Structure formats: C-alpha cells, structure tokens
Amino acid sequence: MAKELTTREENYSQWYNDLVTKADLAENSAVRGCMVIKPHGYAIWEKMQAVLDKMFKDTGHVNAYFPLFIPKSFLSKEASHVEGFAKECAVVTHYRLKSDPNGKGVIVDPEAKLEEELIVRPTSETIIWSTYKNWIQSYRDLPLLINQWANVVRWEMRTRLFLRTAEFLWQEGHTAHASKEEAIVEAEKMIEVYATFAREYLAIPVIVGRKSESERFAGALDTYCIEAMMQDGKALQAGTSHFLGQNFAKAFDVKFATKEGNLDYVWATSWGVSTRLMGALIMAHSDDHGLVLPPKMAPIQVVIVPIYKNMADLEKIDNAAFEIKKKLEKRGISVKYDNRDTQKPGWKFAEYELKGVPVRLAMGMRDLEKNEVELARRDTLQKTQVSQENIEDYIENLLVEIQQNIYDKAFKFRAENTFKVDSYEEFKKQLDEKGGFYLAHWDGTAETEALIKEETKATIRVITDDENPEPGFCMVTGKPSKQRVVFARAY
RNA sequence: CGGGGUGUAGCGCAGUUGGUAGCGUGCUACGUUCGGGACGUAGAGGCCGUGUGUUCGAGUCACAUCACCCCGACCA
Length: 491
What we know:
Number of domains: 3
CATH architecture of the largest domain: 2-Layer Sandwich
Strand content: 25-35%
Largest sheet: 7 strands, mixed
CATH superfamily of the largest domain: Bira Bifunctional Protein, Domain 2
Oligomer: single chain
C-alpha cells in the first residue's frame, strides 16, 4: 500500500490531515496558513457553489462583487465589529516595489506609502454598507438582496486545511430591509437554506438555532447557526446567518424614506458559508480507507474500471463500458471510465476508494461473458454482481440509497453521541470520556458560560428554538433555566 | 506570543567515534504480469535549510539565523 492513512482511532486529526492531502483535496502552500485547493477538492467546492447559488437565486438573491481591499477607516466605524476582527487583519501599506539597491531582489519602495492603509477584507460588511448608502434612498429600493462569492483573509495563528486557513473562499449575503421583522425573517430563512443544503446535499444532519451572546458575530444582534457533529464527537459550525439590526446602517448612515414619509435606518442581515464546509463533509462521513462522498457532492459518481489481460480483451471491455457510460450519462450521472493502461486494477480500486467515488463498476472478461458487472459501493464497501440489463436503473437507485445511507449513518452517530446531563460533575466526566453533544441547563449568563469554557473547553454551540422548551436548573449555578442548550467542544 | 520538535533525492526516512551519502516509495526503460495499491532487471535523481566558526577534513561539533510541524493562548 503506497498511500496508507492514519486510522481515525489512532489519531483523528492526523487521519484528517492525511486524508485531505492523500485524496488530493488540498495541500499547504508556500504561504504559511494558506492552502492550495487541488482539482479534486475544488471540484467538490464547485458542486457546493452550484447548488447553493441556485438556492440563493431561488430565494430572490442576486450576485455582485465588492473589492478585496477596505479602507482602514471603514473598519473602525462599527465598534464591536472592529473589536472582532482587528487582531486578524492583513494590512496593505505600500503600492510599489523597487530593485534593492544593495543587491539582488526587490524591496518595498518607502516612497510608495499609501495615504490610507487598506485592509484585506476579513468580511465585507463595511465596504458593502458604504456602497449601499448610495443605492438606498427609498423603501422602493428595498429589500436589497445581494450575495457575493469571494475570498477573505483572517490572519490565523494556527491553521488547518479547510477548517481554518488564513485565506478562504466563501459566499457572503448582505441584505437590507425596510423593517426589523423582515430582516429577521431573512436571517432565519437563510439559515434554513443552509440547513437544507447540509442535510439534503452534504448528507450532514445539523442542529439549527442561535448563538449565545458571547459566540455571536461581532456587530450582530442575533446570530443563527447550523452545528454539525464530526466523527470525533466535536462540533463544527457549518454556516451562520446574522440579524445585524441597524448597526451597520447607523455606522454608514444608510437611511431610507418610508412609505409614511419618515426617514429611518435600514435593517440588515448577512450570512455565509465557506470552504470550511469541505472540512465538515470530509470529517462527517469518511473512513479509514479514505474519503466518503455523498453522491450529490461527488464530482465523479461512478467510476468504471476494466480488468483485462491483453489489448484484445480491453477492446471488448471498452465497447461495453462506453455503452454503459452513455446510458448512465443520459440519466445525468457523472461517470469516469478509467481505461488507462498505465495503472493496474488494484491500484485504481484503492485510488478511487481514497477519493470517495460512491460507486465503482468493475468489468472483466468473466463479467462480459455473463453480461454482468461488479458493483462496489463506497459507503458500505459491499460488492455485488449485477446484470448489465437496466444497469442505469439499478445505479440510479443505488446512488439515491447511498445518499440516504450516508445521512442516516451520520444521524445515528449524532444520536448516539448526544446526551442529556443535569449534573456538572457528570457533564465534565462524560465529556472527557466520550465527547459528543450535551443537552444541559444553563442560567443564561455569560459568566457561567465562560466558567464552563474555562474548565472544560466546551462552549454553547447552539440554542435551539424549541416548541415545548423543558425548563430546569442550571447545572453549574442551580439557577432557573428556560431550556436545555447544546454544549460541546468545537472546531 | 509561550513550550516542544524537525530541516539529508519528488515524498517518507536512516546516517555510528568527524573520513567525501544511503534505504523505502515514487520516477524512466525493457520484459513478465493484470478480479484489491504486481514482480524482475537496468537507470536517472543530492549546495545534507542558510551563514560563520573549530578542524588536514563537517550531514555529523559550536554559535547564529531562517523555515516548517506539533501542543497551548486567540479564532469560523
């Protein structure tokens, strides 16, 4: 075995790193903290983009693009926002290089200092709201529903491929509304879009809810989120949607004339998901053999591998394989027929397993004689002999089944690792032993939350909006609590 | 920013008391193979992170420096 993965049990985070690099998803680059997303990884990201983009359009949003650079002064206009991002901003101070007079290479030209420094966007609220000011005068200009696909930079001390990188790709929606209610509806609508996407496409069960005050986005009045559980029992925030109130409208003086003829500040939301979803997808489903992709997110859904001894055999298999490929493609299934003579079948099996192709179809002379193929599914690693008759029906159904099975498996895992606890001692003990999600009572104060984080490294991941909340008493202070909240250690 | 570690072939690593560089894998060619990462034979591939010093002689010793990785603090 040329490419051996560390097993999950041995070292979960090493397993993740191995998987990302060995499955050719991404690698570290010459720039510390920044990754190169390789074609296979990028193809998955493109599938995510395509689905999400359609979902945004279907909910009335349009795409636009705002600059990478933000004048420094913009960032300081909204106080809590600055506080949230100041520590991790890359700053452009000069606009020119020149040859080093003392030798080789180039140096920054000290003559070319910028009048006002530019910040590489950590997020675009400020540049966008400074622009919206010019676009919005009347209630007739509202709502403004805009999304942008972009890269952002947050200068992180410690980075991990996809999960936390200094530069990452994402989409950020920024909307403006005439009323508070409408903005809240928008923020809630978009978190539901993310939840649907996670469940139906990524096959990841997520919990929808809101963040506690201390976990909230800098500048938001309310942050909604979707939280997923990874296979090591840790939580991963997979998407956020913020109700920004009038904070940015006030900071950038964005007012509109209401129907009644008054002037009022507009109400805002912003929402985003990033290449972090790649990390979620990888960690939610994959196994010790490599990546496991839900069919809807797999760039290649079916790979066909010929097994042959000589070129005459290959020619016969080629004919049958291209026939099957055509039939599958007619159904909208993406198929790769790998008849490269430079790699052996066994090598190809291992390779596509590592890369997470959901269905492998192997065809040799034995199969050809019986008019059969061997199908192997990636999620269960099961192999079956299947007739070539109506193979497209069989595979079409199989892909649906695999998608469902992957979701069910993740759902079951989460259920088995979610615990109700009422005593803080039990919480601490079990968290260390098993990890997972803990439904516990909390008195609602930031102090208690901070104490729990300090002592256990667990945080409140999400506060759900339950129809029948179960009241109780805070596991730490014993004070009354309206409902249980979800605690976990997080990425 | 604190603590620890590592820099030697594309990748992963070994290199003893200081004596002129090796293994695995990958790569190239040819042959035999081909139903789970095949085998044989022959090859190519190195400023031993960088600099200064000690020495007849440095991958090896000393000092400095740079880079990267891991664990913390901070964060999506």
